[in-house]
């Protein structure tokens, strides 16, 4: 998987070259997910570059998350985030949870 949240903002801050390197070095057989509240020409170009059959989600007002989706968030001290993430993923595996998407701030 490759997931880009706020994909339009990633382009606004000038990560185009870095994204090209990422796309070139990831396996071709992957699922790519681009999320954005707005559609721009640059984002359309990124969508074309990202992969064959990339999924693009554009948010519309009034759209809600399905009730069966379990969402959680945790506030973690910055210096502890790696160990907390490892622990959460370990607990998920222990409970037979096999997939998750983890959103983090820009590095």
Automatic annotation (TrEMBL):
Top-rank taxon, per record: Eukaryota
UniProt keyword annotations, A-Z: ATP-binding, Helicase, Hydrolase, Nucleotide-binding
UniProt keyword Cytoplasm present: no
Coiled coil regions in record: none
InterPro entries, per database record: DEAD/DEAH_box_helicase_dom (IPR011545), DEAD_box_RNA_helicase (IPR050079), Helicase_ATP-bd (IPR014001), P-loop_NTPase (IPR027417), RNA-helicase_DEAD-box_CS (IPR000629)
Gene Ontology MF term list: ATP binding; hydrolase activity; nucleic acid binding; RNA helicase activity
Segments forming domain Helicase ATP-binding: 1-57
CC annotations in GO: cytosol
Keyword Cytoplasm: no
Name of the molecule in the record: Helicase ATP-binding domain-containing protein
